[in-house]
Each structure stands twice: as structure tokens, then as C-alpha cells.
Amino acid sequence: MRYIFFSLLLPFWLTSVPNSTQNRDHKPPSVANQNLSSVKANEKFDTKSKNLVQQQINLIARIEKSLIEPDVNPLRAVRGQLTVHVKSVEGFLSRQYQSPKTLCTSRANFATTDGSLPEQLNESQVKIYCSLYTSSQELLKLVPILDRLLSRRGELALVRPLPLVSGERQFDSVIAIAPVQRPQLGKQGTPLSTWEPNLSPASAPIIGRNGKTAIANYIPPVQPAIAPPEAAMTTVATAKQLLTTAQLAFPPGTQFTNPQENSAILDRFAYDIDSQEPQTYAKFLTLPKTGIFRVLPVIAYRRPPNTLRNRLQATVSERYPFPSLGETQGGFTPSLALHLVGDRFSLQHQGVDYSFMVDLGDVPLEKLDHKLQAVVLPRREFFLNYQPPQQLESLQVERRRFITGKDQNWNLSQAIMADAPAELNHTYLVRSLQFQLPEMILSGNSASRQKGRGSDQLQQLRSSDIILAFRPVRRRSDGSYTVLWRVLHQLSNPQIADLEDYVK
């Protein structure tokens, strides 16, 4: 009976429940569809605007690089890419709001004239919207600058007329079928300078007298010095700042790629040691006068012939300098300028510098000391007791003896060379003699034109004589080595007694 009573009462109770309670978790289909479309619109805006911000970051990186490159083609490429990108940004912005200028130049912060936001955009999206607009308009200021620089780059390299994007037929009187020529801005422009022969640099330059050259009266072309215009860099910095504002307005977790940071990482990967290698050899590096660095092939330090280089930009040896072997004195710092020539270790010499080395085999660096007790007796005595000449001409003769291995009277079983075959996990003993010759000796200027200054330079000759050892511990696929080095003995600084004879 009780169950029959509740079954009769239930319909009356349901009709008495308020509408708000019944519809608490239910919304009309029209409201749900509006919310869903709003979410999809926001996601579409975020996706498209993120792509445009990333494109603009990439474009700015290419513009900055083209401003300092002597090659004309990258500059031509970014000039066209800038126009296409700005048009893409303007098209996207106009679809979101009809008047970007009105929206982004109002008195309120990223709001319309009456202080309200557009219905389809929230506050963060308006910040992204206006940052994209103002940054793209800022980049338009670069157009006349790029046009002016493009004409100047035409003085360095050949600027060919570009064919159409779809290609153009290049008619030939001999070939029956005319080939299609397409634009190739990815290739380097042809330099307008004279033809440059592929000559290897002289291993032993002659100081104090004239020597024969491979080509008589040949003067190599001077590489251009290109500094980016200050107005262009100011415009780029402003556009970067606006893009930073846009990136901060995106939802948390949104990531952007920085091409310049990636380029720096790739540059270190190509020329520097790995970040974990100092940790791997941390115990050895705690010893005094030790270090670790990467030995590169000599081609990494040379500019390929018939190519242009901005001489104001840092070279590989300037970005990744050779290890210093001692303290700097009067602008002179002895260094371990070690590189690979083919499959042999060799030191890069300047002026009258020279060195010699021997392969000790698999001898740990920790077992070597300043007395070289781990080295066999004949070599040990030679490395410790060798006395360099004190005349400029004799120094250069001595250097050629170690380079060629000829005319050596050291009473040793084999010649002592300036280089040695590269072998992994072998230890090499080196004695390096380095000099800082006065500029008037290197340039051939007469001391009579610099009387007092010339005598002061001759009296301030800087030099070093160091015995060291290095050991390659890793070989990479590009042929470079990671080496550990250690200074074993610092000998008295060598002197040159007849410098005055070369300036009279």
C-alpha cells in the first residue's frame, strides 16, 4: 500500500520542482553551439597567429644575417619575403577586425576607441593582434634600406635578373630544346673581384728579405668590410621587442623557436668541445697548467678561394681561440695553435715562430713532469737542452730544418719534425718557441722614419719557450679531435740579438 502511495505522488512532486533545478546541467542547443564555435575560433586564432609570429621571428633572423653578408642573393630573398609576410599578416588581421589601426592606436591598452574589446577577441588575443600589426608595420621601414643595400651589394657580386617563379625558357642557337631557367636565390652570387688562385699559404714566410711568390706581382683581393646600418638595427630591435610582447600573451606552454640560438648551438657543435667533456676529464683538469680543446682541420680556418667574407665578422679562430699557454705580457700571449693538416698534427706559426714534436706513444699525461723522466734519454736531453739561435736569419733556417727534416745534426736515430701523424690516445711532446716581432720588422718599414719609437720596439721583444704535451682522447666523424694538454716546463725567453741590422 505504501509503494502505491509513493507512485501516485511522484508525478506531482516532479511538476513542483523549480525549473532552475531541473535545468542546472542543461543548456539550450543554441548556447552550446555558440560556446563551441567560440572555442574553435579561439583555437584557430591562436594557431594561425602563432605561425605568423614564428614566421616573423625567422624572417627577422634572416634579415639580420643578410645585413652583414657580402652575398647579394640572401638580401634579394629577404626583400621579397618581407613583402609577402606583411601581406599575409595584414590579411589575417583584417579577417579578425576590420581596422587594425583603429584597434591598436586607441587610448586604452589594446582596446577599441570606446574602451571595449572586439567580441571575437579576448584581451590576450588583442595583445597578440596588435603586436603582430605594429611589428609588421615596423619591419616595412626596412624596405628602402634593403633596396639601398641591394644596390651596394651589386658592387661586390654579379646580380643577374631573376626569371619568373614558374621559370623562363632560355633560347639557344645550338641546342634545339630550350632549357627552362628558374630563380636560384639559394646559391651564392658570383664575386666581381679578379680570379683568385687556389694556393696553399706559405708554411714558412720569410722575414727580413724579399722571397719568391707562387705568382709574380699577385695581390689578393681585399675582402669587404660590412657594418649593418644603425637605422636598420634599431628597427629590428623594436620589432623584436613587439614580438616578445606577443609571445608572452600566448597560453602558458606555447613554445617558439629562436633561429639565432639554434645557429649558435650548431656553431658550437661544429667547432667547440661538447659540454660534458670537461666533466669527463675533471680530475685531470684540476692539475695546474692543463686544459682541453678541439683540434680542427686547417681548412676550418681558411676562406675558400673566390668567395666573399665580411672581414668585420669574427673568424673561427676568433670565436674559438686557441688555448693560452701563459700570461699575457705587453699584448703577447703564447698559445697552442694546434690544427690538423691532412692526417697530421701541426702548429700554426707566425713570423719566426717554430716548434717540433714527437709521438711518445700511449704514455699518460699525468706521468710526465718538468724533467721528462718518462721520455727516453736521447729525446729527453734534446728537448731539455736544445738552444735556439739568436739571429733572425738563423731562426728561419732552423725552422725549415724542422719542417723538412733535412740538415739535422742532432745525433738522434731519427729526424725531429714540426708535425706528427695523428693517433688517438697517443701522447705528443712539443717544444714551442714564439716571438712577437716589432711591426716595423714585419712590414719592412725603416727605423729612420720612426727613430725613437723604433728603438723602443726593438728593446721590447716578447717571446716564450715552452715544453708541453697533448693527448687526443676523442676523434669525431669530421676528422677533428678533442685533446688534453699540459704545460710541463717554462724555459727562459729566447732573444734575437740582430734585429737592429734589419731596420737600418
Structural overview:
By secondary structure, the protein is an alpha+beta fold. The protein folds into two domains: 219 residues; 244 residues, no CATH class. It has 16 helices and ten strands. The strands form three sheets. It has a five-stranded antiparallel β-sheet. A three-stranded antiparallel β-sheet has the order 4-5-7, with no helix packed on it. Strand 9 and strand 10 form a beta hairpin. Helix 3 packs antiparallel against helix 4, helix 4 packs antiparallel against helix 6 and helix 4 runs antiparallel to helix 7. The N and C termini lie far apart (135 Å). The N terminus is likely disordered.
What is the strand and helix layout of this fold?
Elements: H1 2-16, H2 19-22, H3 29-68, H4 72-96, H5 100-104, H6 123-139, H7 142-153, E1 168-169, E2 180-181, H8 230-249, H9 259-271, H10 277-280, H11 282-285, E3 290-295, H12 316-319, E4 338-341, E5 344-347, E6 354-361, H13 377-385, H14 392-404, E7 419-421, E8 427-436, H15 439-443, H16 451-459, E9 462-475, E10 481-491
Antiparallel strand pairs: 1-2, 3-10, 4-5, 5-7, 6-8, 8-9, 9-10
Domain count, please report it. Answer: 2
First and last CA, distance: 135 Å
Largest sheet: 5 strands, antiparallel
Element-by-element helix/strand order: HHHHHHHEEHHHHEHEEEHHEEHHEE
Which runs of at least 5 residues are low in confidence (pLDDT < 50)? 1-25, 31-36, 107-115
What is the overall shape? Answer: elongated
Number of strands: 10
Numbering strands along the chain, what is their spatial order in the largest sheet? Answer: 3-10-9-8-6
Helicity level: 25-40%
**Estimated structural class:** alpha+beta
Figure out the total of helices.
16
- What number is the mean pLDDT? 84
Q: Oligomeric state of the chains? A: single chain
Rg calc: 35 Å
Percentage of residues in DSSP E strands: 5-15%
